[in-house]
Amino acid sequence: MYKRVPSRDLVDGFDREEILGQSQNGVWNDIGNPSWKRPLPHVLVATLTSFLFGYHLGVVNDTLESISLDLGFSGSTMAEGLVVSTCLGGAFLGSIFSGWIADGLGRRRAFQLSALPMILGASMSATTSGLEGMLLGRFFVGTGMGVGPPVAALYVSEVSPAFVRGTYGSFTQISTCFGLMAALFIGIPAKKVLGWWRVCFWVSAIPAALLALLMEFSAESPHWLFKKGRIPETEEELERLFGASHVKSMMAEMSKSEKGDELDVKCSELLHVPHSRVVFIGSVLFALQQLSGINAVFYFSSTVFKSAGVPSDIGNMCVGVALAMGFQVIAGSNDFPDTGKLYLSIGGMLLFVLTFSLGAGPVPSLLLSEIFPNRIRAKAMAVCMAVHWVINFFVGLLFLHLLELLGPQILYTIFATFCLIAVAFVNVVETKGKSLQEIEMALLPAV
C-alpha cells in the first residue's frame, strides 16, 4: 500500500529542499540537463505500439486483393472497405477507454493490455475462412490500436527530458512509418504466393508479444505515480530515468503544477473552460490530419496506382521508401501521357507522404501530450484520438466508393482543400524546450 500525500505539503516541502540543496551562499548551482540515454530504452519499447499501429494500417494494402479472392468477396468495394474500416471502428472503441485505462491501471499496464487483443485479432485474421472471421479479427486488432498510440504519446512525453522530448516524440511517427514499410514489403509476395496474406497477419503477433513482455521491465510514468500519491515510487522512477541529482527539482516542479491531481477529472470538465480550448485544438488537429487523405494512401495505394495506369508493385515500393496532391490530380487526367502518369503518380505520393511525415504526422500527438495538464492528459488524449478514429473510419469505408463515384481528380482536390485549411489553423502554442509544467502554466494559468 502507498500513502497519499497532499499536494500542498509537497509544494512547501520540495520547495524548501530544492532551495537548500541547489542554492549555496545565494548562488544557484546549475545541474544541467539530465542524460538522454537513460529514458531511451523505455521510449523505444513504447514505440512498438506505434510500429504495430503502422503495420496494421498497411497490412491490407498489398494483401486485400488476395484476401478478397480467398474469402469470396472479390469485386465488392463495400466488403473491401469493411475489412479496412472495421479495424478503425475497433480503434475508436479502444480510444474512448484508453484514458481511463491509462489513468486507472498505469501506462505500463495499458501498453500490455493493448497488446493482448492485437495478438488475438491477428491470430483470428490469419486463420479465418470467411469474411466474418476476418472482420472480427480486425475489430479486435483495432481495439488494441485504439489504446496503444494515445498511451504511447503520453508515456513518451512523461519519461523524456524537456530538451529531447520533441526528438523522442518523433520516434513514435518514425516507428509508425517503419511499421507501414514492413507491412508493404512483407506483403509484396501476396499476389504470387497462395495464402501469403495469412503470414502477413501472423508476423504482427511477434512485436505485440514483445511489447507485452518488455513493458514488464520498463519504467512507469513518474507523473502517473505522483498523481496517485505514490511518492517513494515516483522518486525511484525519476532517479531511474533522469538521475539522482534531478529528483528533487523535478518533484518540486511537478508538485507546483499538479495540485489537485488526486481528484479524477470528469468528461464534462473537458467541454468547459479552462480545458475546452486545448481539447478543441487537439480535436481539430487530428481531424485535419485525417481529412488530408493520408491513410487513403496507406490503405489503397495499390488501387489508386492502378486507376492511374501505374503498376502497383512499382508504386508500393516507392510508397514504402517515403510515400502533392496537385500532382495526383493532374495524373488522373486521361489526356496525360502514360509515362507522365507513372512519374507524377509516384512522385506525388512520395512528396505527399514525405511532407506529411515532417509535420502533420508526428506533431499532433506530440503537441497534445505536452499542452494537456497532467490531470486531464490521458482522458483528453482519448477524446481527441476518438475524433481521429471516427474520421479515419469513414475515410477507410468510403474511399473506394468515392473514387468510383467522383474520380481521382475531384476526390484528391477535396483532400488538398483540407490540407490548405490545416495551413490556416495556427491556434497552437510553442512547446519546444519547455517542461510539461511550464507549458501547462503558460497555457492554462487558472488550472
Order of helices and strands: HEEHHHHHHHHHHHHHHHHHHHH
| CATH fold field value | Growth Hormone, Chain: A
**Biggest beta sheet summary:** 2 strands, antiparallel
- Helix amount: over 70%
Strand order of the largest sheet: 1-2
User: What global shape is seen?
Assistant: globular
Find the structural class using helix and strand composition.
Answer: mainly alpha
The DSSP helix count reads 21
**Proper CATH architecture:** Up-down Bundle
Overall number of structural domains: 1
Terminal CA distance reads: 29 Å
Keywords: Membrane, Sugar transport, Transmembrane, Transmembrane helix, Transport
Domain Major facilitator superfamily (MFS) profile: 42-434
Family: Belongs to the major facilitator superfamily. Phosphate:H(+) symporter (TC 2.A.1.9) family.
Main location: membrane
What distinguishing features does this structure have?
447 residues; mainly alpha; Growth Hormone, Chain: A; 21 helices; 2 strands; 1% strand; disordered N terminus
What is the fold's blueprint, element by element?
Elements: H1 7-22, E1 23-24, E2 27-28, H2 40-46, H3 48-71, H4 77-105, H5 107-127, H6 131-159, H7 165-186, H8 196-203, H9 205-214, H10 222-227, H11 231-242, H12 247-257, H13 276-291, H14 294-307, H15 312-321, H16 325-331, H17 338-358, H18 363-371, H19 374-406, H20 408-424, H21 436-443
Helix pairs in contact: 1-12, 3-4, 3-6, 3-7, 3-8, 3-9, 3-14, 4-5, 4-6, 4-19, 5-6, 5-8, 5-9, 6-7, 6-18, 6-19, 7-15, 11-12, 12-21, 13-18, 13-19, 13-20, 14-15, 14-19, 15-17, 16-17, 16-20, 19-20
